[in-house]
């Protein structure tokens, strides 16, 4: 029997499930640079902070479980950035491959436009084909130094831990998050090479951007958005990805 999934605003009762979804990716993947899963209390602060700014935090409600979530947070705390936000989307491991990422992102784009967001930015960790192509065009990866005491020597023994170099006759795995964002109209705005180090690997991030609402020539409707709090009050943004 098929279960209907509904995208709706997140509630406090959803946060334990949201925390569990994120914890899975923190502990088992490199798609987030967090290394310690945030507790539910931190998620409560995140939800409250987004509500205060009028920004969306959505969940995919599959009836008896939360199948995923997506939200948009202010890109930077300085006031002039108030019409730019950064999106985040994660799915429960048991609900990937069903199109829910697109469903959540489509709803988030609509909610961001309604909230007065003009530019939506995505920061995607790149570990697939695009990482190698991007590093080739941008130049060699920075060398962390042979004498770095924090360097994971085990990563040097296996090229597959450092790069997605395919074996003969195979194809390296493409990045599904990059593919999703590009299919929704995001364009690449830049690449930061080897800015993250996790699970014995140096990792790139790709910046993508999509314009919502008014054109470059028009001023935004300031009345549609609350002015964000002073940066000194930004403690509610306790984590990013």
How does this model look, in words?
With 241 residues, the protein is of the alpha+beta class. It has one domain (6-141, 158-215): Aminopeptidase (3-Layer(aba) Sandwich). It contains six helices and seven strands; from the N terminus they run E-H-H-E-E-E-H-E-H-H-H-E-E. The protein has helices at 15-28, 40-53, 100-114, 129-138, 159-162, 176-183; strands at residues 6-9, 57-61, 66-74, 84-91, 119-126, 187-198, 201-211. A seven-stranded mixed sheet has the order 1-2-3-4-5-7-6, with helices on both faces. Strand 2 and strand 3 form a beta hairpin. The model is unreliable at 130-134, 136-172 and 222-238 (pLDDT under 50).
The termini sit apart by 34 Å
State the total count of DSSP E strands: 7
The Cα radius of gyration reads 19 Å
Helix proportion: 25-40%
Series of H and E elements: EHHEEEHEHHHEE
Shape: globular
CATH homology-level superfamily:
Gcn5-related N-acetyltransferase (GNAT)
SSE layout and pairings?
Elements (H helix, E strand, L loop, with lengths): L5 E4 L5 H14 L11 H14 L3 E5 L4 E9 L9 E8 L8 H15 L4 E8 L2 H10 L20 H4 L13 H8 L3 E12 L2 E11 L30
Parallel strand pairs: 4-5
Antiparallel strand pairs: 1-2, 2-3, 3-4, 5-7, 6-7
């Amino acid at each position: 029997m098929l279960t209907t999934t509904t995208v709706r605003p997140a509630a406090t009762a959803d946060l334990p499930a949201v925390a569990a979804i994120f914890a899975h990716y923190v502990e088992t993947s490199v798609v987030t640079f967090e290394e310690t899963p945030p507790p539910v209390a931190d998620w409560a602060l995140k939800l409250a902070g987004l509500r205060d700014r009028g920004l969306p935090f959505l969940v995919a409600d599959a009836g008896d479980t939360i199948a995923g979530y997506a939200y948009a947070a202010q890109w930077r705390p300085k006031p002039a950035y108030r019409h730019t936000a950064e999106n985040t989307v994660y799915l429960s491991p048991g609900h990937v491959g069903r199109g829910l990422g697109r469903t959540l992102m489509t709803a988030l784009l609509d909610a961001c436009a309604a909230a007065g967001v003009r530019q939506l930015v995505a920061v995607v960790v790149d570990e697939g084909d695009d990482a190698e192509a991007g590093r080739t065009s941008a130049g060699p990866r920075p060398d962390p130094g042979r004498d770095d005491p924090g360097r994971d020597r085990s990563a040097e023994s296996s090229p597959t831990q450092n790069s997605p170099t395919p074996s003969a006759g195979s194809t390296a795995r493409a990045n599904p998050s990059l593919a999703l964002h590009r299919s929704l109209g995001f364009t690449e705005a830049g690449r930061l090479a080897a800015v993250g180090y996790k699970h014995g690997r140096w990792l790139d991030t790709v910046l993508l951007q999509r314009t919502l609402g008014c054109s470059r020539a028009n001023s935004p409707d300031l009345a549609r958005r609350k002015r964000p709090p002073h940066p000194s009050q930004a403690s509610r943004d306790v984590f990013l990805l």
